[in-house]
Write a structure and sequence with these properties.
Length: 167
Amino acid sequence: MGAGFLLFVVFGVVGVSAVAGAVLLFRARRMVVGSGPPVCGQCGYNLTGSESNRCPECGKLFIEAGVYRGATPAHESARKRLGWAFISLPLLLILLLTGGLLIALATARRARLQAQVAAAQAATAAQQARAQQQFTRGLLEKAEGRSDESGEAAPAKAGAERSDEGN
């Protein structure tokens, strides 16, 4: 699998999560108190048909817990927290992925620049080595040329002196 596909999947999940959070927040804001069946303010139990003054689920008196029609304030705040979590966590994930991507790009750029510097240093070293070889070769050629001149002349003179002595 390529990196593009993985990014597509990650950002797809992040997008779906953010949309779900937005829907939860929108629904929590639109929820109208007074619509729906009566529920216990403590536990949210549906009190339709209840004939006592206590909640059959948690045992609280209605006067203490309160009776609401529709969502209780606790449910509404829980839904809002969940909505904010669905929105903020994907945004945090996007920030982390973006930061990681920027760090990876910076590291790759640094490595590429270091490779270019190393290549330039190697080329400079090779050029200096060639220049040193040429210089050394030139010195050797000059030294050999002088020794050849003195070396060839000396045996010729020595041979001439020997032939003069023999006569």
